[in-house]
Amino acid sequence: MGRNNERNIKKHNDKLHKAQDKAKQAVIARKEKLKEIIKKFNEDKKEEK
Question: What band does 18 get if pLDDT is binned at 50, 70 and 90?
Answer without folding.
Answer: very high
